[in-house]
Specification:
The protein has helices at 2-14, 27-37, 54-66, 95-106; strands at residues 44-49, 71-76. By secondary structure, the chain is mainly α. It has a two-stranded parallel sheet. The model has no long low-confidence stretch (mean pLDDT 79).
Length: 107
């Protein structure tokens, strides 16, 4: 199902002379391969959403380090996600306290 959706999005973007690349692998390696393997203007600009999770933040940091000197880095505010509409201001850095707070507010 998702492959059909991606194929449809690629076709829609192609109609507007845009491209969608789907890559697999470790994010830092995939971005490095993309930036160095395609005829792109250097430095390119990479846009990412700020993520509250420690693993996600580590992946972003690794990708930023791998692309140092090859890309401008633009970290945007947190994007649209289910956790943006929670009834508290500060998200915990690990999942268990987050889950506990959500459960407490859900009752």
């Amino acid at each position: 199902f998702w492959q059909q959706g991606v194929a449809d999005l690629q076709a829609q973007l192609a109609a507007h002379k845009q491209a969608l690349w789907v890559v697999r692998g470790h994010p830092a390696d995939a971005l490095l391969d993309l930036v160095t393997g395609l005829p792109l203007e250097n430095p390119v600009t990479v846009y990412v959403n700020r993520e509250p999770g420690t693993e996600e933040s580590a992946e972003i940091q690794q990708a930023q380090t791998a692309l140092q000197g090859l890309a401008r880095w633009c970290v945007q505010a947190t994007g649209q996600a289910l956790y943006n509409n929670v009834p508290f201001r500060q998200l915990p850095h690990v999942f268990t306290p987050f889950r506990q707070q959500v459960e407490q507010h859900a009752q």
